Amino acid sequence: MGRIRRVVATHRRGGIDCAVNMDTGFGPQLSEELRLRVLDLTRGVLGSGGFVAGAFVADRPGADFDCAAYRRAADAIVERGGTPIFFPSYGLVSGSDDRIVERFQSLAEHYDTFLAFELGEMFAPFGRVFSLEVYERLLEIPQCVGAKHSSLDRRQEWERLELRDRKRTDFHVYTGNDLAIDMVMWGSDYLLGLSAFHPEAFAARDRWWAEDDARFFALNDALQYLGAFAFRPPVPAYKHSAAMLLKQRGRIHCSATHPASPSRPQSDELVLAEILERIDSAMNASP
């Protein structure tokens, strides 16, 4: 658990909001006990600072929506000062558009703020990318203050941004497109697994974008190179890529992946080392 403390602290020092028990942290593979330990560790590191955490319910194809299980997961997050993001499950996202919206409306009755999550099936078999009609109806739920969009498709994200700008400007479209991290240039916020690889680099990139500093572009390109390599098929193996890079950076001591998650060949370490050099060079460039 020491690695969790170090990674959370690194995000805080860099000014990056922290999200835990997400896909990158093997959230769907962790036991309920471990997810609670992660929440407690995060609270301990951040003190009074806020964070986002995945509210996950494990089920099987054909399962009914388990509102009680989602509430238990979300309550544990809220009690520790976090904002829940409702992971998809077979029960939550199956069936008609009306049924999906009704389930989110039932959850909204119990929470002041929460995030929704569109997850493509390339990430997990229980994922679903909503129709644009469902997305528009999510914007009509006041407690739903944003949604992560992980289709890896710019076109669909642009459609959501247009809808946000037209219908509800305070709503946050959190890009989960690690193959197009420049979506921040189009008006998306981000909740990227890729940012966990090198939060300091993302913090510098964000600062340079806000300051209209041209160094943004070279650093963004280097980070996108990392995203294209790490998020190649099978996409879920990006978590092993993250562990490899974090070990190279001295942030963790072991690059082993969760046994339920696919792995990358050890030869990837050479490519990751070269990409890391490119990122460090971009970060150290003169204005």
Write out key terms for the chains shown:
287 residues, 4-stranded parallel beta sheet, 11% strand, alpha/beta, 3-stranded parallel beta sheet
Polypeptide structure, described:
With 287 residues, this protein is α/β, with parallel strands linked by helices. Strands 4-5-6-7 form a four-stranded parallel sheet, covered by helices on one side. The chain has a three-stranded parallel sheet with strand order 1-2-3, with helices on one face. It is globular. It has helices at 2-14, 32-46, 67-79, 90-93, 97-108, 132-138, 154-167, 199-210, 215-230, 238-248, 268-283; strands spanning 19-20, 51-55, 82-86, 114-119, 144-150, 172-175, 189-190. Helix 1 (2-14) packs parallel to helix 8, helix 5 (97-108) packs parallel to helix 6 (132-138) and helix 9 runs antiparallel to helix 11 (268-283). Helix content is 46%, strand content 11%. The longest helix has 16 residues, at 215-230. It contains eleven helices and seven strands.
Helix content: 40-55%
User: How much β-strand is present in the residues?
Assistant: 5-15%
The DSSP helix count reads: 11
Radius of gyration: 18 Å
Q: What is the rounded distance between the termini?
A: 38 Å
- What overall geometry do the principal axes of the alpha carbons give? globular
Q: Regarding quaternary structure, how should these chains be classified? A: single chain
Q: Main sheet: which strands, in order across?
A: 4-5-6-7
List the helices and strands and how they pair.
Layout: H1 2-14, E1 19-20, H2 32-46, E2 51-55, H3 67-79, E3 82-86, H4 90-93, H5 97-108, E4 114-119, H6 132-138, E5 144-150, H7 154-167, E6 172-175, E7 189-190, H8 199-210, H9 215-230, H10 238-248, H11 268-283
Parallel strand pairs: 1-2, 2-3, 4-5, 5-6, 6-7
